[in-house]
Amino acid sequence: MFAVLRIPGFALQAILRVEPAALASQPVVLLAEGRRGATVALCNDAAQAAGVRPGHSVPRAQAHCPNLVVRTAQPALEQEAETALLAAGFSITPQVELTAPGVCTLGLEHLPSHRRAPAVDRALGELAALRLHATAGFAATPLLALYAARCAAPGRVVTGDRAFLAPLPIATAEPPADLAPILTAWGIHTLGQLTALPKSDVAQRLGREGLALWERAAGATIRPLNVVAPSRDFVATYACEHEMETLEPLLFILRRFVDRLALELRNAHQAALAVELELNLADDTRHTRSIRLPEPVTNPELLFRALQTHLETVRTAAPIVGVQLRLEPGRSQVRQQGLFDGGLRDPHGFADTLARVMALVGSDRVGRPMSLNTHRPDAFTLEAPPPALAPLPDGFTHPPRGLALRRFRPPAPAKVELDGRTPAYVWTAEGEGAVVATAGPWHSSGEWWEAYRHWQHEEWDVEFAAGGFYRLRREPTGWLLEGEYD
Amino acid sequence: MSSSASLPALRQLLLERFPSAVRSSGAALATGIPAIDEHTGGLPRPGLTEAVCTAPSCGSQLFLGQVLHSTRAQALRVALVDAGDAFDPGSWPGSLLEHLVWVRARHAAEAMAAADLLTRDSNLSLVVLDLRHAARADLRRIPATQWYRLQRAIEPATLACLVFTPTTVVPCAQLRLELSHSHRLATQSSERPRLGQDLAPTFLRQRSTNLAAAS
Questions:
Q1: In A, which residues are within 8 Å of B103 by CB distance?
Q2: Cβ–Cβ < 8 Å for B182, A467
Q3: For residue A51, what pLDDT is reported?
Q4: Which domains are seen in chain A, by residue range?
Q5: What is the mean pLDDT of residues A129-149?
Q6: How confident is the model at residue B2, as a pLDDT?
Q7: For labeling, which of A223, A272, A472, B204 is most exposed (least CB within 10 Å)?
């Protein structure tokens, strides 16, 4: 058993899927260069309703339909649509043949019969989500399945058999131009009428071409499929016809990419670990960004949200002329949440929120604080929050003592009057005060082996008469008020 | 009817006529400070709590430390939006900060915008907004509507929001506390958890969002 997925008007659909949806309801034609200049190669339903037909010249088509939208073929978009068609095919079976542009044939012999129709329906749904409206046909031979797909309405599946084949017009079998008038003269208008004639008599009268036509009309030949290998590189590329200056058209293209790549990932039973975006700019520079995802994902909504959050903060120096999106594949995470573990409820939502906050305050100013392994004052780093929290230890070996420090960043320069070696009065830009109690000094130094990183200071805790106590730091250059104990 | 008698009657009437409009309050978030937990059950969820710090060394970081310990023990996520960039990670054991996201804002307006984003995240249980050292002029420039917006953002979630301020600035605070007692230098020799448990803030305001409970 074979199935065929077919996208009618493939080259035109490949273009319309990356255009605003409103364009699909307008009359649109695709031009092809011929001997007599550019002629209409494909037209959508709206153009056909206005009287435009394939083969019309542009002036003639515009005479039928003054508001006609004209497009020319874009091989890159056709390639993208073809990849999407193959991805839909691979969601059913690994035996997929790219038979012609916009047509792929699937070998279904290994798929149980009761699962074939739902699988093909699902694939049509996947293509519709990718804005490609396809038809499908089932039959015992690839050719018969193709005929069935040609006869099916968009989004519908037709099963081809002998009875289905008989009333189809002879044009379905694509007779050679010199044989068509002969058959018409014989009164043969359908495939059934042709196959009713003895095969040997047709071969005797019409030669090799007639024999091939009879076999095509019978549709009984089973041929081996020229199977395509599924892609292991999850990349989508687009060279823009017009420069993009705003976010909206870029997001529109990326949404198509993400949907297709997510489908390919699901087919390969893999998930995206990271999203790598590359924007080619008109000034020959590039904007690249790798977004590591909080956990492997195949959901296109989550992938797109990560991209959108990043792009909302991007300002490029020049318009965008090309886009490349690559998903780094990896194994899906299979982990059962523990009843008491502190995992995130929505890891992607959390990553999205942090990305928005980072866009606001800066990426180096958000994260989980971690002290560095040094006695240098105020030495810390900010790390990404952990996906799950380890249980809190029962007690601390050295429980913290006293009030925690509330730092002044940078420390406030201070002028200190000493009583012997002890601070007695402090002046800063913010205020001044008499010291009523002190603790210290505590001497500290480190990294003396580094020419520019060595440090040495003494620290005092001082309580002011007006209330509150603070940390003072004495450095070779002077005194600093480091913070308030709070 | 006196005003004190008419208010519960009005609440009861509202409860009967508009039952869907009544917001049910979630379980309060324990702070680990007995004076608060025994009085109110903890920080209201959903709700805004304002801790007004009117004296130097009044223990706002101590308060924060107790809340961090309590939330860490419950494996809840916390965000600290630090308008003064004053938090000192070196003052705390590393394991106590594992659940914390620290946002080092540059000024009050940036901190408010960051808090607005964070309060909408379903992963967080507490957002702490530290405006203790924010410039008074900056605080005055925050319109009241922005606080109400923050309150509205919190309401659909089971989130507590704790705001440290130098003076009363949050008009819609459900719970308002005051830390007005300065600690002495001698307290530096005491264990911090004990100091935290001894904190005794003054209750300036306590509102209930639950009409039934209030009535």
A1: 357, 361, 365-366
A2: yes
A3: 87
A4: 2-159 (3.40.1170.60), 235-330 (3.30.1490.100), 405-485 (no CATH)
A5: 86
A6: 59
A7: A223
Q: What is the pLDDT of residues A207-222, one digit of tens each?
A: 888 888 888 888 777 8
Residue identified by tokens 């230098």 is: B185
Q: Under an 8 A CB cutoff, do A469 and B98 touch? A: no
Distances (CA, A) of A174 to A4, A127, A143, A147, B139: 18, 27, 12, 11, 79
Least confident of A156-165, A443-452, B72-81: A156-165
Q: Residue A367 in contact with residue A312, Cβ under 8 Å?
A: no
- 3-state SS class at A4: strand
Which two three-digit tokens encode residue A468?
């509150």
**3-class SS of residue A142:** helix
Report which secondary-structure segment, H or E, holds A38.
Answer: strand A37-43
- Give the percent of chain A with pLDDT over 90: 14
- The two structure tokens encoding residue B55: 């004296």
How many angstroms separate the CA atoms of A483 and B57, rounded?
A: 11
Q: Do A461 and B193 touch (CB under 8 A)?
A: no
Residue B29 to chain A, least CA–CA distance (Å): 16
pTM for this entry: 0.67
Minimal Cα–Cα distance from A372 to chain B, Å?
9
Between residues B203 and B1, the one the model is more confident about? B203
Min distance A125 CA to chain B CA atoms (Å):
32
| CA–CA gap between residue B3 and residue B23 (Å, rounded) | 24
Amino acid occupying residue B39:
H
Burial of A189 per CB tally in 10 Å (0-12, 13-18, 19+): middle
Q: Which of A367, A378, A406 sits opposite B101 (nearest CB)?
A: A367
Q: Longest C-alpha distance within chain A, in Å?
A: 126
Res A335 pLDDT > 70: no
By the 8 A CB rule, do B56 and A430 touch? no
CB atoms B101 and A341 under 8 Å: no
Name the pLDDT band for A461 (thresholds 50, 70, 90): very high
The pLDDT of residue A333: 62
The shortest CB-CB distance from A439 to any of B55, B91, B185 is to B185
Q: How far is CA B15 from the centre of its chain?
A: 27
List the one residue out of A56, A32, A208, A223 whose CA is nearest residue A143. Answer: A223
